[in-house]
Amino acid sequence: MEKNIPYIQVEDITKAFGKVIANNNVNLTVYGGEIHSLLGENGAGKSTLVNMLSGVYTPDSGSIYIHGKKINFTSPKDAINSGIGMIYQHFKLVDNMSAEENMIIGQNTGIFVNKKKIRNKLFDICSKYGIDIDLKKKICNMSVGEKQIVEILKVLYRGADILILDEPTTVFTPQEAEKLFNIMFKMKENGCAIIFISHKMDEVMKVSDRITILRKGETIETVNKYETSPEKLAELMVGKQVNLSIKRSKIDMGEEIIKVNNLTVKNEEAIEVIKGVTFNIHRGEVLGIAGIAGSGQKEICEAITGIQAIEQGEIIFQGENIVGKTPREIIKKGVSMSFVPEDRLGMGLVGAMDMVDNLLLKSYHNEKGVLLNKKPTAKRAKEIKENLSILTPDIHYPIKNLSGGNIQKILLGRELDSNPNLLIMAYPVRGLDINTCYTIYNLIDDERKKGVAILYIGEDLDALMQLCDRILVICDGKITGELKASEATKEKIGLLMGGKSEEREESSVV
C-alpha cells in the first residue's frame, strides 16, 4: 500500500545547548494511522526532538514538515495550531476545576460560553475514541490515569491529529495503561499519528507499528515492530549486546532481620500517610513494594532509617526496637542500613563534592582522631569506579556534572561499601538507561547471595516480579495485598495498587 504524505517529516535536525549537541542531523518520518515509538537511553536526544516538534525549542538547522508543509514554530501555540498535542509527564490541569472546565480555559470563546455546544463536542470525541471519563468530576478527585485521559481529551478538543506521549505510563497501574493503549489504538484507527516515548520495552513492543532508535543525539535506525525484538532494540540503543535477563539466585533465606509492626506515620498536616503497616524481611530475601507514586513508599523508607517521625508502631531491627532513634544513633548501635533514596542529589549525595568526599559522608564519624585520612577512601572510590563502570574524568571530579546513571551508581557503590545487613532501595533505576538498570539488578542479586535483606521499591512491575521473593502492594498508606513473586501477575498487582481488594491473608497461606 502506497503511503500518503507524512504527518511529520523531520530532516537533518540539529540542536545544541552550548557545547552539548543534543540532536545531530536527526531524521524522523511519522504517518497518519501509525503509532511510532522513540527509543533511546537517557541523553539520547528524545526529549529535545519532541520539544522542537511541540514548539518549545527552535532547531539550529534542518527542516520540519507537518502535513507536507514546512513549518518554523516559535512557540507551543504554533504547534497546537498545526494540530500537534504534547502530553507531558507533569499535567497542566487546574485541580479545583472539572474536566469540562479545563477544556474551556485558554480558549478564545469570547464573553459567552456555549456549554451545551462544548459538551456535545466532547461527547462526540469521547464516543469516537472510546474515552470513558466523567466530565463533571474535579481533577483533584481523579486518579493519575484519569488525569492523563483529560489531557488527551484536551488536545483532541483543540483539533490535534498528532499526539506526542512522553513516558505516559510511568506511575500507572497496568489497568490504567491498558485504557490508555485502547485510546491510542482508536486514535490510530481514526487516522491520527502518535509518537510514543517509553523506557518500558514490553509497552513499545505492544503498541508500536514502527520504532526509531536514537543514540547520542543521532538517528540510528527505524525498524518495523514485527521485524525486531527487545534484545535487538536494546543493542541498537546501547551500541552493544545487552543481556535482558534478571538474575535471581536460589538461596536459603536466613534469620529475620527486620520486623515492622503496626507502623503509623503522619505528615506535616497531621494526616495519616502510613496506616498500620506490618511486614518483615529475612536475610537473603528481596521484599518488593509496589504502589502508585505517593502511596506511602517514601515514608516507610524514611521511618525505618530514622529520618521520619513515627506516630505509633515499632521497628524491630535484629531484635531491638529502633523507633525514636536518630539516623546517627541507629548507625552507632551497629545497625547497618543502606538507603538509596528517590532524590539522588537532594538526599543522597552532595553535587559540588567529588566521589571521595561523598564516600566520606557515610563513614567520616568512624575515623579516629581530628584529621581525616582520605587515602583509604580514595582507594575505595577507585575500586567502586572500576567495579560499577562509572564514567567520570576523575574520582576528584564534582559529581553534579555527571549523568544521572553515573550519579546513581556512585550512590549505590557508597551504600554497598558499608556492607549492610539491610539495603533499602527506593526507585534505584528510575530514569536510568537499560544497561545501568541491569547492572543494578545484578548487584541486588549479589547482595542477596551475601545474606543481605533488601527492601526494593520500584515502578517496573516486570522487574519487581523477577527480582523479588515477595511483593507487598500499598495503596493510600495501607498494605492491600501480599503476593509471592512466583504467583504474582501484573493484573493482580494492578488491582491491589488501585485499592481493589485485600488479598494478603490468602497469599500468605498459599
TrEMBL record:
Domain of life the protein comes from: Bacteria
A single cellular component GO annotation: plasma membrane
Matches recorded under Pfam families: ABC_tran
Enzyme Commission code(s) on record: 3.6.3.17
Compartmental location: Cell membrane
Molecular function GO labels: ATP binding; ATP hydrolysis activity
Topology class, membrane: Peripheral membrane protein
SMART domains reported in the protein's UniProt record: AAA (SM00382)
Keywords: ATP-binding, Cell membrane, Hydrolase, Membrane, Nucleotide-binding, Repeat, Translocase, Transport
Residue span(s) of domain ABC transporter: 8-241, 258-501
The name this protein goes by in its record: Galactose/methyl galactoside import ATP-binding protein MglA
